[in-house]
Write a structure and sequence with these properties.
Blueprint: E1 4-7, E2 19-21, E3 24-25, H1 28-45, H2 51-59, H3 69-83, E4 88-91, E5 110-112, H4 120-123, H5 127-134, E6 144-146, H6 152-164, E7 169-171, H7 172-175, E8 176-184, E9 187-194, E10 204-208, H8 213-229, H9 235-242, E11 252-256, E12 259-262, H10 268-282, E13 286-290, H11 298-305, E14 309-314, H12 325-335, E15 342-345, H13 349-363, E16 367-370, H14 373-384
Parallel strand pairs: 1-4, 5-6, 6-7, 12-16, 13-14, 13-16, 14-15
Antiparallel strand pairs: 1-2, 2-3, 8-9, 9-10, 11-12
Helix pairs in contact: 1-3, 5-6, 10-11, 11-12
Length: 385
C-alpha cells in the first residue's frame, strides 16, 4: 500500500533504473519536474547573493564547494520522491555510509550487509576502518539489521556503534534461521524461522525468482528490516511481495541458446558464492567472459574461477570505469598455469562477447559473464541488439 521510491546503483540497461517507484519508472513528468527543480537549485549555488549559496557556506569550511555528481544524483532522487508524494523510501548508500550523501535520512530501519575489503582507498585499509564508515548510517534509536559478517572486526564495530546510538541491533545468526534452502535455475526457496521477539511468530515459506544462496540471505535481511520498520505488515504480504522481486545482473539468465548467465559480482566473497552456485547448477567446463574495474582483487577472483571453465575470455568491462584488462589477463593466465583451462585476451568488449558466444554455440557450453555490473550490462545490451 505504500508508494515507494527506490534508489540504487549501478544501473544495468538505463539510468532510470537508479531512481524508480514501486518497481517501475516514475512518470516522465516527475523526472522532468524534479530535474527542473534541481537545475534551479544548482544555478542558485553559483549566485553569491542567493539563499542557497549562503546556506551552503554556513555549513562548509570551503566557499560553496562544487557538489559531486553522486551528491546531485542523490538530491535528484529525493526531489523525484517528494514531487511524486512517495510515502516510503528504500535507499542504498553509494560508498561507505558516514559521509555518503544518502546519509541525511533518519531511517525506520537500517541494513548492514557483509563487509569486505573494497574501496580501501576511500574507506580505509582495515576491516575495522571500513566498518566504521559503514556504521555511520546507524541512527539514534533506529533498529539495525546486521548480516553475518565474514570478519569479526566488522561485527564488533557494528555492535559497538549500535550500542552507542541506543539502536536495537539484530544480528542475523542470532535473530533468524534460514533452512530448507533449494536453489535451482528458476529461483530460490527456503524457510525463514525467527528466534528473536518482534518478528513473525511462525516460520515463513519464501520463494524468489533470483538464483543463489546470497539472494536468499539478502531477501531475509530485507524481511527482517521491513518487519521492524512496519510492525503491522503481515506474513502474506511479505510472501507475496518477495515472489515478484527482480534484480538484473544477479545470476540472471539472459539467453537459452547459447545459455548465458550474467552476474555483477566483483569481490572475493561474492565471486566465490557465484562460482559455487554456477558449479552446482551448471557444472564445470563452460565458458567464462570476465572483466573487472581497476583496483579489484583479480587474483582472489581468479582463484575461485579458473578450475570451473574450459575457456576464459578476459575483456574490458565497458568504458564507464577505468580497467586494466591486460593486467587481469596476466593474473588469470598465471592462476590457470598447469590446468587445462585456456585464457584468451580480447580487449574490445563486443569482440570478446561474440567470441564467447561462438565457442559456446560450437561446443554446446554455457556462458557466465562475471566481474562487473558494467560488463553484465554490455553483455545484455549486445544480446538485445
Amino acid at each position: 500500500g505504500f508508494r515507494v521510491a527506490r534508489y540504487m546503483s549501478p544501473h544495468i540497461t538505463e539510468y532510470r533504473e537508479r531512481i524508480t517507484c514501486n518497481d517501475a519508472f516514475f512518470d516522465e513528468s516527475i523526472y522532468i519536474a524534479a530535474g527542473n527543480e534541481l537545475y534551479a537549485y544548482t544555478s542558485a549555488l553559483s549566485a553569491p547573493n542567493s539563499d542557497a549559496y549562503r546556506a551552503l557556506c554556513a555549513v562548509s569550511e570551503d566557499a560553496a564547494p562544487e557538489p559531486t555528481f553522486f551528491e546531485l544524483l542523490t538530491l535528484y532522487y529525493f526531489l523525484c520522491a517528494r514531487t511524486a508524494q512517495c510515502t516510503a523510501l528504500a535507499v542504498e548508500t553509494g560508498m561507505g555510509g558516514r559521509l555518503d550523501p544518502t546519509n541525511i535520512v533518519h531511517s525506520r530501519a537500517t541494513i548492514l550487509t557483509g563487509i569486505e575489503f573494497e574501496h580501501t582507498d576511500m574507506l580505509g585499509d582495515t576491516i575495522t576502518k571500513i566498518a566504521r564508515e559503514k556504521a555511520g548510517i546507524i541512527k539514534e534509536g533506529c533498529p539495525v539489521i546486521v548480516a553475518e559478517q565474514p570478519y569479526s572486526g566488522a561485527y564488533l564495530q557494528f555492535t559497538k556503534t549500535a550500542a552507542e546510538k541506543h539502536a536495537p541491533c539484530y544480528y542475523f545468526p542470532e535473530t533468524a534461521v534460514l533452512s530448507q534452502l533449494n536453489v535451482n535455475r528458476e529461483g530460490s526457496s527456503w524457510q525463514l524461522e525467527f528466534t528473536a521477539d518482534g518478528f513473525f511468530s511462525e516460520p515463513l515459506e519464501l520463494h524468489i525468482p533470483l538464483v543463489g544462496e546470497v539472494q536468499a540471505l539478502n531477501t531475509s535481511l530485507a524481511v527482517l528490516a521491513v518487519k521492524r520498520a512496519f510492525p503491522e505488515i503481515s506474513a502474506a504480504v511479505v510472501q507475496n511481495a518477495v515472489q515478484r522481486v527482480l534484480l538484473p545482473a544477479r545470476f540472471e539468465r539472459i539467453s537459452l541458446k547459447p545459455l548465458v548467465v550474467v552476474d555483477g559480482a566483483h569481490t572475493d566473497i561474492s565471486v566465490r558464492l557465484c562460482a559455487e552456485t554456477w558449479q552446482r547448477l551448471y557444472g564445470k567446463g563452460g565458458v567464462l567472459i570476465f572483466g573487472c574495474a581497476q583496483g579489484k582483487d583479480a587474483a582472489a577472483m581468479a582463484h575461485h574461477l579458473v578450475s570451473l571453465f574450459s575457456k576464459i575470455i578476459i575483456t574490458t568491462p565497458g568504458t564507464y570505469k577505468v580497467s586494466e584488462p591486460e593486467k587481469v589477463c596476466e593474473i588469470f593466465t598465471e592462476s590457470a598455469a598447469g590446468t587445462d583451462t585456456s585464457v584468451i585476451f580480447i580487449k574490445e568488449t563486443a569482440a570478446g562477447i561474440q567470441t564467447a558466444l561462438d565457442i559456446a554455440l560450437a561446443d554446446g557450453l554455457p556462458v557466465l559473464g562475471l566481474g562487473s555490473f558494467y560488463l553484465a550490462a554490455e553483455i545484455r545490451s549486445y544480446l538485445a541488439s
